[in-house]
């Protein structure tokens, strides 16, 4: 028994004439007769009986028609759903650093939906530190992550997609508060609130201090940039953090670092352990195409 036989059977049950059913199915009448005969032989029952100049279903035929119709409807619905997904429909699960949630990620998702109105795409948004995001990515909880550079590993595919400015923040009234731009070396006289080892920015800030051959005095560590900003605002130390609008609402002063250049690359990351869904793959290609279309200075 195969799907063609069941579809032929249901068409014949509806039309009640081999000629009409064969014409609708775009096959020859002998081909239809042979398919029905094979189906009856396999099942060991008669499915049709003559009814004057037409045919009608036997009791066994009516039983098969009920279950075949229901089964094929479920199958057709499933196939249609798979075709929708293959065309890019479905849910895309994004994980990203919290500082990207104000503008970068909403802008990406909004432009994608506007350019692909027929794909029936939805997004799920999650935030976290780089370490937690990458762990969840490998666990299959996210499709794509936007984070700091992953550690050297065979677990990830990753591509830089943007740069994010890092700034020095100090509390109001701090000796550096009247400065606008300062070299990193001149900040070393003051204790730092630092990103801990789970944060992608820990590696970035360590490299910045390595460039000037010195290390800061670290008094507190955490993985949350907003927590760091709050601690600075209350006088616990100074810190290097990504620029974020929250800083404008806190009692901190924002300083630019004149040397070395204080930026970090943001990467789009996928896991080698899990196959991307068509929807997630299409979104990833959208982001990569946008990188190629962006003019470089």
TrEMBL record:
Residues 1-58 form the HTH lysR-type domain. CDD domains: PBP2_GltC_like (cd08434). SUPFAM superfamilies: Periplasmic binding protein-like II (SSF53850), Winged helix' DNA-binding domain (SSF46785). InterPro entries: LysR_HTH_N, LysR_subst-bd, WH-like_DNA-bd_sf, WH_DNA-bd_sf. Keywords: DNA-binding, Transcription, Transcription regulation. GO terms for cellular component: protein-DNA complex. GO terms for molecular function: DNA binding; DNA-binding transcription factor activity. Belongs to the LysR transcriptional regulatory family. PANTHER family: HTH-TYPE TRANSCRIPTIONAL REGULATOR CYNR, TRANSCRIPTIONAL DUAL REGULATOR HCAR-RELATED. This is LysR substrate binding domain protein.
């Amino acid at each position: 028994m195969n799907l063609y036989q069941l579809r032929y059977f249901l068409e014949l049950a509806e039309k009640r004439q081999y000629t009409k059913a064969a014409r609708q199915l775009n096959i020859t009448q002998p081909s239809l007769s042979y398919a029905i005969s094979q189906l009856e032989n396999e099942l060991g029952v008669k499915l049709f009986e003559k009814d004057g100049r037409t045919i009608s279903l036997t009791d066994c035929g009516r039983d098969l028609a009920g279950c075949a119709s229901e089964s094929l409807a479920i199958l057709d619905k499933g196939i249609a759903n798979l075709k929708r997904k293959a065309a890019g429909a479905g849910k895309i699960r994004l994980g990203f650093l919290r500082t990207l949630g104000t503008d970068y990620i909403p802008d990406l998702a909004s432009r994608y939906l506007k350019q692909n109105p027929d794909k029936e795409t939805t997004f799920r948004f999650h935030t976290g530190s780089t370490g937690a995001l990458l762990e969840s990515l490998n666990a299959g909880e996210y499709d794509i992550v936007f984070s700091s550079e992953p550690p050297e590993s065979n677990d990830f595919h990753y591509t830089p997609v943007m740069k994010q400015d890092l700034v020095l923040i100090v509390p109001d009234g701090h000796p550096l508060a009247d400065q606008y731009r300062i070299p990193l070396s001149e900040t070393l006289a003051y204790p730092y609130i630092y990103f801990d080892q789970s944060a992608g920015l820990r590696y970035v800030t360590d490299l910045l201090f390595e460039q000037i051959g010195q290390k800061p005095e670290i008094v507190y560590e955490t993985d949350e940039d907003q927590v760091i900003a709050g601690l600075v605002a209350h006088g616990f130390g100074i810190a290097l953090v990504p620029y974020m609008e929250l800083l404008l609402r806190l009692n901190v002063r924002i300083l630019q670092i004149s040397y070395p250049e204080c930026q970090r690359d943001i990467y789009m990351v996928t896991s080698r352990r899990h196959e991307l869904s068509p929807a997630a793959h299409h979104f990833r290609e959208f982001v990569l195409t946008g990188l190629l279309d962006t003019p470089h200075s």
